[in-house]
Amino acid sequence: MTDRFFLPEKPLQRFLELESALRTRFSWWHGLSSVRVAGLTLTTVDGKPRHLVNELWSLSERLKRRSGLVGPFQSSVRHIVAAILIRNGDDADGFFQEFQRVRLLLREARLPRGQTYQGIATLMLRDQAATQGWKVVRRSQVERTRAVYAEMKLHHPWITGGDDLPLAALLSGSEDSPKRMGARFEHLYQGLCGYRFSRGNPLQAVSHLLYLHPEEDDLVMRRFRDLYHAFKDRGLWMFEGDYDEIAVLTFLSQSPAEVATRVLEHRRQTAMLRPRPGRNESFSLACHTAFLELAQVGSSNQPLLDAAAVARIVTIIQAQQGAAVAAAAGAGAAAAAASS
Question: What pLDDT band is residue 331 in, cutting at 50, 70 and 90?
Answer without folding.
Answer: very low
